[in-house]
Design goal:
The structure holds three protein chains of three kinds. Helices cover 68% and strands 0% of the residues of chain A. Chain A has helices at residues 2-7, 9-27, 31-53, 80-111, 116-119. Chain A starts with a helix and ends in a 5-residue tail after the last helix. The two termini of chain B are 35 Å apart. Chain C has one domain. Chain C contains 21 helices and two strands. Chain C has helices spanning 2-5, 8-22, 30-58, 90-113, 118-137, 141-159, 166-197, 202-212, 216-233, 241-248, 251-275, 281-303, 310-334, 342-377, 393-407, 413-428, 430-442, 444-455, 471-489, 491-507, 509-516, and strands at residues 61-64, 85-88. Chain C has a two-stranded antiparallel sheet with strand order 1-2. Chain C is globular. Chains in contact: A-B, A-C, B-C. Chain A binds chain C through residues 18, 25, 31, 34, 38, 41-42, 44-45, 48-49, 52, 81-82, 85, 88-89, 92-93, 95-96, 99-100, 103-104, 106-107, 110-111, 119-122, 124, and chain C through 142, 146, 149, 153, 156-157, 160, 163, 165-167, 169-174, 176-177, 180-181, 183-184, 187-188, 190-191, 194-195, 200, 243-244, 247-248, 303, 306-307, 312.
């Protein structure tokens, strides 16, 4: 059990971060805390994607100056596709965080409070 | 559309329906032509009879009171349903997490037991 | 010129995207921004219809992004497709045509509806269209995620368009949180699928599940994808954002949001049918989808009655109709592995896919009529409105046609699709058909309430000066009503030409794999 956990530690941490982010979204009513929760969830998924592409003792997937196949310091390359997915995801979560914070600022300007229960007018 | 015998046949022909509508319209106009041409327009005797008070702007049924009987009969359901639709984002995410958890458990149980 | 035709799939996504980034430069010259936006929407509509006709004739169309020979899936003769593929089969082309049509009509409607910030509005609307078309045309899971995000984020700017009021901002915030959570879980699931199967291409994933079956990570990925896309489509019990977002957006944006929900439904069914269609997991997913559908049917129809706000009322009725589509396609999913029920499953899917296009049209029609009322009277509150049929007869007539359509009465197109759904779902499980029929009758109640509250009744003093809406808006409502009635008068022709190829494309996983790879 401990061995499984220690081998898959990045994935376990990623799941824990997802849960922490969901906790913030489920139980906190401050709009900024909800934005923080979403940001943490985005980071969790990025961590998961990076950890997905890693192989044991691998080097960066760059062909320039890479060691040749039969050489002494030959090594595998980590998978490049999840790294591309992560870059895209970072940019998207940047846009989402920026929009969430600006909408929170606008809500504060209109209603004078950042609490979702007090600032909310759409019910039913 | 699939030719299943148990459903049976149907006759949906828009040209025939339009033709029937035209024929009926001509019939109605012919019947109307049998009436008198010298009826008095805009007099009280040609207006529909509304018993009670005709609705005015101050004295009309508002939209909240439409279908009052239906709403009143289902009032316990509507009280609960409106409480669930609270408008809080936390509740929205809670229902998503709830459905996700249920679906994960159901899929895993279904796969372990039956596949 | 013939060379250009093979690039049409990429152009259909590229033209709205290019014009979306061009329009903020035209901010000062309002008329040129509007004309450029309408030109882009018209060109995209032409491209989408051309692609639909091409795919119906010639089968699956592939486009490798950035390759010298775009028509090949593996232009460099590799073992798996390494480029992003756009793979357009009949269902994708169908959804693309729906999206482009509604976007064009929404654009024409917005000329008079939007009074300021035209370049921002049309730029975001074109981005929404590019996102929706990219979502339905793409053949790559990660590309689907990216366009799903483009669609969601551009919708947020449009929902919160009237920033001077607090309610649209709150609705935008809620929609943003919901779509961010959904997309995070979609990305998680895409990562899981990549880790398990090694390819991101939808046809590649499909072939991998056909050959190797499914594993534990597939269960998690499938559950995440189904829940995330169902939430974005507005399925109960995750439907709470729908009335908020649909109610506070400008009317034409709400029509496009309905298209966005249908695009999420497309993604859900693409994954369920094409990627996982051969696995035994599908029966359980089918029951989940049917349960979502039944809950949406009932909750949408009943909660619609107690709304005071016109657009929230129509939004709840729209949730009910989304339940129809979910039930129909869920029955189709459940019948894949169940041989005696297969013709009924195919018929249910025909009804469901036909209902997709009907839903898009009459939902857009109802929201555009609601927007027309809001434009002229300045209020959406049903208690304040009244007696507008004297002043706005055309809007009343179009709203009536929309109400007839949502009730499923002939001669509207929804009658044909609902009859198909009732008759086939009855053989699957009669209780579901009964609930569908009861909700269809129940949803008439709020529509009657809305129509009588707004248009009938005595004349209200402050609405004495209300005029009819401008001709461009009436034209769009007329086109939508005409489409609803024409599809209703000739349903057999529509189902045979557009809907049946889409259903066959969706049901046949091996045809998709064979056509792409």
């Amino acid at each position: 059990m401990i061995a499984v956990l220690s081998q898959n530690l990045p994935f376990v941490v990623s799941a824990l971060l997802l849960l922490i982010g969901m906790y913030a979204l489920l139980f906190k009513s401050n709009l900024i805390k909800m934005a923080i929760g979403l940001s943490v969830m985005g980071s969790a998924v990025n961590l998961f994607l990076i950890a997905l592409g890693y192989r044991q003792d691998s080097i960066a997937p760059i062909f320039t100056n890479a060691p040749l196949v039969g050489a002494v310091n030959a090594a595998e390359m980590a998978m490049p596709v999840p790294q591309a997915l992560t870059l895209t995801s970072i940019v998207i979560s940047l846009a989402v965080t920026a929009l969430m914070l600006s909408l929170a600022v606008l809500t504060f300007r209109h209603t004078g409070t950042l609490d979702a229960e007090k600032a909310g007018r759409l019910k039913g | 559309m699939l030719g299943l015998d148990s459903i049976g046949a149907a006759a949906w022909n828009p040209a025939v329906m339009a033709l029937a509508f035209l024929v009926l319209l001509l019939l109605v106009l012919a019947l109307r032509a049998f009436g008198r041409g010298d009826f008095a327009k805009d007099k009280l005797k040609t207006q529909p009879f509304l018993s009670g008070n005709a609705p005015t702007e101050k004295n009309r049924v508002r939209a909240d009171n439409f279908f009052w009987g239906f709403f009143e009969a289902l009032r316990p359901y509507y009280r609960r349903a409106s409480n669930v639709h609270s408008g809080l984002l936390n509740d929205y995410i809670f229902w998503f997490a709830f459905c996700l958890a249920l679906l994960l458990i159901a899929l895993y149980a279904g796969v372990s037991l039956w596949a | 010129m013939i060379e250009l035709v093979q690039h049409f799939p990429a152009l259909a996504i590229g033209v709205p995207l290019a014009f979306a980034f061009l329009l903020p430069l035209l901010k000062k010259w309002r008329n040129s921004a509007v004309i450029a936006a309408l030109a882009a929407l018209a060109v995209t509509e032409f491209l989408a219809l051309f692609i639909l006709q091409d795919v119906l004739q010639n089968g699956i169309r592939i486009y490798s992004m950035g390759a010298v020979v775009p028509g090949l899936a593996t232009p460099e003769q590799m073992a798996v497709p390494v480029r992003i593929l756009l793979s357009i089969d009949a269902f994708s082309a169908f959804m693309g045509a729906v999206a482009a049509t509604i976007a064009l009509l929404a654009g024409i409607y917005s000329i008079h509806f939007i009074r300021e910030s035209h370049s921002k509005y049309f730029s975001l609307l074109l981005l929404m269209l590019a996102g929706a078309l990219g979502l339905v045309f793409t053949g790559d899971m990660f590309n689907m995620f990216v366009f799903f995000e483009v669609l969601s984020i551009s919708s947020i700017g449009l929902i919160a368009f009237w920033l001077h009021r607090a309610e649209p901002v709150e609705a935008g915030f809620k929609y943003l949180a919901i779509s961010a959570v959904a997309s995070i879980f979609v990305l998680f699931a895409v990562g899981l699928l990549y880790g398990q199967h090694g390819v991101l291409n939808i046809a590649g994933l499909s072939r991998s599940t056909l050959l190797y079956g499914f594993a534990f990570t597939d269960i998690i990925a499938l559950a995440l994808l189904v829940c995330a896309f169902s939430m974005k489509a507005g399925a109960a019990p995750m439907h709470y954002w729908v009335p908020d977002a649909y109610g506070e957006a400008p009317a034409a944006v709400t029509a496009m949001l309905a298209v966005a929900s249908l695009a999420s439904l497309y993604a859900l069914f693409r994954i369920a049918f094409t990627v996982f269609g051969a696995t035994p997991l599908i029966e359980l997913v089918a029951f989940a989808v049917i349960i979502f559908g039944v809950l949406s049917l009932f909750l949408g129809a009943t909660m619609s009655l107690v709304q005071k706000d016109l657009k929230r009322l129509i939004a709840y009725a729209g949730i009910s109709q989304t339940g129809f589509i979910l039930v129909a396609l869920g029955v189709g999913l459940a019948a894949i592995h169940n041989t005696p029920l297969q013709p009924f499953g195919a018929m249910a899917m025909e009804g469901g896919v036909f209902h997709v296009i009907n839903h898009a049209f009459y939902e857009a029609l109802l929201f555009l009529c609601a927007g027309a009322v809001f434009l002229r009277t300045g209020t959406k509150d049903l208690n304040e409105l009244g007696g507008l049929a004297r002043r706005m007869p055309f809007t009343a007539f179009f709203f009536l046609i929309g109400g007839i359509a949502i009730a499923g009465l002939p001669p509207s197109s929804a009658f044909a699709s609902k009859i198909l759904i009732y008759e086939s779902v009855y053989f699957f499980n009669p209780l579901i058909a009964v609930i569908a029929l009861v909700s269809s009758v129940l949803v008439v109640v709020p529509m009657v309430k809305a129509f009588c509250a707004i248009f009938l009744g005595p004349e209200i003093g402050k609405f004495k000066k209300v005029r009819e809406v401008p001709g461009a808006m009436l034209f769009t409502m007329l086109v939508l009503s005409a489409l609803v009635i024409i599809f209703g008068l000739f349903p057999g022709a529509i189902v045979e030409t557009i809907v049946s190829p889409a259903v066959n494309a969706l049901l046949s996983q091996s045809a998709y794999v064979g056509g792409v790879l």
